UniProtKB/TrEMBL annotation:
UniProt protein name: Peroxidase-like protein
Oxidoreductase among keywords: yes
Record InterPro entries: AhpD-like, CMD-like, Uncharacterised_peroxidase-rel
Domain Carboxymuconolactone decarboxylase-like: 74-109
GO molecular function: peroxiredoxin activity
Length: 214
């Protein structure tokens, strides 16, 4: 019988372009920090992300952006929100904005953090239907949607809900900041028409082996 995991393996080649604007080759880059960032990404992930490549046209802007974005997503091992909570926020917001690159990327990362590829995909589709979300994650996802779509509608009660679930004010600000900043990155990706890396699509091999026949 055909498994449900067979279908998403169609992506096999890189897209013909990764931005509406010119994208520098890696050996053209002049900024040490930016070159180091891509070298590290290649070592750690075996790829260079299309979104960061698209932004490398303005190297100094990318360097400044990385100085804020990467720690905000927990790349520096900081405390505060968990890696899974950060990726829940990023995945939900990217889905709200229908950003192809960010939605696929963060759903993939959430699946890796959670140890369950399907979890990331289901949160990406509709977090309200994902029973495995903790109460904290659900509340963070809900306020992230408000930050992205209707920030004027946020009330004290929304903040009190987060506090009642054990989040302190530092963590609440962190969650709001992630939602707002991911919304900005979504808009950049959409405007430049950045496609997802093919590595972010399809079911990982381990998950294909563990998916039962239907």
């Amino acid at each position: 019988m055909t498994t449900t995991a067979d279908a998403p393996t169609i992506a096999s080649s890189a897209p013909s372009r990764i931005s509406r604007l010119r994208v520098p080759e890696l050996d053209e880059l002049q900024t040490t920090a930016v070159r180091g960032f891509f070298a590290k990404q290649q070592r750690d992930e075996g790829l260079t992300s299309n979104w960061f490549r698209a932004l490398s046209l303005n190297e100094q802007d990318l360097e400044r952006l990385n100085g804020y974005l990467l720690p905000l997503l927990g790349a520096d091992g900081r405390g505060g929100l968990s890696a899974r909570e950060r990726e829940v926020i990023a995945t939900v917001v990217s889905g709200e904005n229908r950003c192809a690159y960010c939605h696929t990327n963060h759903a993939n990362k959430l699946g890796k953090v959670a140890g369950d590829w399907s979890f990331g995909q289901r949160v990406a589709i509709d977090h309200h239907q994902v029973a495995e979300l903790t109460d904290r994650e659900r509340a963070l996802a809900d306020i992230a949607v408000l930050v992205n779509n209707h920030p004027q509608s946020i009330r004290d009660g929304d903040i009190d809900r987060l506090r009642a679930l054990g989040l302190d004010d530092h963590q609440i600000l962190e969650g709001i900041s992630i939602a707002a900043f991911i919304g900005a990155t979504n808009r950049i990706g959409i405007a430049l028409s950045v496609p997802p890396n093919v590595e972010y699509t399809g079911v990982p091999a381990a998950d294909r082996r563990n998916t039962p026949d239907r």
